[in-house]
Structure formats: C-alpha cells, structure tokens
Amino acid sequence: MQRLRAGQERSEREHGEITVAASLEAGTEWLVDAAGCDPRRLCDLRHLQRVCRELIDGLRLRVIGQPHWHQFPPIADSSQDESGGVTGLYLLAESHLACHTFPEHRRASFNLYCCRTRPAWNWKEFLEQRLGASDVVALAVPRGSLAANSVPREERP
C-alpha cells in the first residue's frame, strides 16, 4: 500500500484548471445493467441476497457490518400481486456494492467499486444464470489513476 507524502493528507489537490483526487491504489468500478431478467427473481429478496453474496465471495471481498436491503411495495397499477423491486447495499472493506432491481421493466443494475485490483468477472454469464438476463452490459472503469480522476474544477468566487 502506498503511503501519503507530506501535504497529501487532503482528499483533493488543485492543479491549474483541474481538481485531482488523491488516490492510494488502483482499482476497478463496475457499472452493470441487465435487461430481460425474470421479474420473479428481481422481486425475490432472499434470491438477490444470495446473488450478491456469491459475487462477494467469488471476488474475495470483505463485508463490513450488516448489508442494508429494502423491498419496495408492488406498483399501484400493477395487475400482479408480486412485491416491487429491491435495493441492496453492502459496505465493503474494498468500498461498496449496490444492487437495484426493477421487475416492472425486467431490469437490474449493479455498481461495484473495489479500491484494489480484482480479477475480471464474467457479469454476462453470472447474471444470465442468476437472473435470467437476456442482455447484460458491464462497464469496467479503472480507478486510482490521477489522470482518470481529473475533473474540471468548479469556478470559485
């Protein structure tokens, strides 16, 4: 693990026209959308907890504290008596995992940020098998590079 040098204790440093987030290690953030999913699986809180647990175990991540889950009520104009979607959040030693399901649209989305390098993950196969997804788009964004974290600085009065 890289150590901070004097003057790096703040989370942001200004460099000309940009603000650069100080970072310690390289990592990856996955932004994942799955479509065509089985709506019953997207309403099944216990099933989604198992899916997330399998992902966490497969990537050898470490959960901090208790995961937080919320089951939404059925949509008012829905003809089905099934529960609504589910949102789950895990605080990880490596950062976080969020899961959001939309059974009425047959969609699920995941956001997983790991502040340390992790092996590639086959999101397509994983979500096809666990959620019945017919289409999966997974974007892996490298994190931890100063160049990758450069954003325009807000104008200051």
Strand order of the largest sheet: 4-5-6-7-3-8
Secondary-structure element string: EEEHHEEEEHEE
| Main beta sheet strand tally, sense and closure | 6 strands, antiparallel
Instruction: Provide mean pLDDT, rounded.
Output: 81
β-strand percent reads 35-45%
Radius of gyration: 19 Å
Oligomer: single chain
Count of individual beta strands: 9
Count of discrete alpha- or pi-helical segments spanning 4 or more residues: 3
As a percent range, the share of helical residues equals: 10-25%
Ends distance: 37 Å
Question: Structural class of the helix and strand makeup?
Answer: alpha+beta
Molecular shape: globular
Query: What are the segments in which pLDDT stays under 50 over at least 5 consecutive residues?
Result: 1-16, 18-24
